[in-house]
Amino acid sequence: MTTWVADPEGGRDRGPRGIARAWVEVLVRPRQFFTNGVAPGDQAPGLVFAVTVAVAYTIGLFWFVPERIPSLAGGPGVSAAIAIAAVTLVIAPATLHLTAALQTVILILLVDDRAGVSETVQVIGYAAAPCVVAGVDVPAVRFVSVLYAAALLVIGLREVHETTTARALLAGAIPAVLLFGTAFGGIPAGEALLRAAGLI
């Protein structure tokens, strides 16, 4: 799952520069990015990207909402460090691959001629790009970021699996709700916005 292909299609750079470049490109030119930047069998860049986004989200969440730091050991600083390490090494990779597994099952049901599991992992990982700011304790910022991420997921599924927008939207709905709505806090943020508007 973490094999680096020597010359992936799209010629993506490795390391911090490659992550930064991918982040900008997927936000600004998502259709072009998913068409050219997702390579068969090249999961590692997408995995590293997704972990980076998850760590950025966690750091932001702990910074803006210190009460979200779990009480583990040695006070808030040590507890935060342990939690971030867990996100980096276990939680983010596991969440990405479980979401990709669910997404693959749904795609099997909806799309006949589709790309492989590796490409699906990459699509989900890169679609999470806007969530680097989802840790900010402002419901509007969090909601917009996860909504944008969900839109990127649909675009990525459509382009990479060469299907229609309607099928991509249907295929990505449940994974988007679980990942962006729940894990990244989009649903509570939406509820907070509705309460502020007096709608609930």
Automatic annotation (TrEMBL):
Transmembrane stretches, start-end: 46-66, 78-111, 123-156, 168-187
Topology class, membrane: Multi-pass membrane protein
Gene Ontology cellular-component terms listed: membrane
Cross-referenced InterPro entries: Yip1_dom
Chain ranges of the Yip1 domain: 25-182
Cellular localisation: Membrane
Pfam family, one: Yip1
Domain of life per record: Archaea
Membrane found in the keyword field: yes
Record keywords, A-Z: Membrane, Transmembrane, Transmembrane helix
Name the UniProt record assigns to this protein: Yip1 domain-containing protein
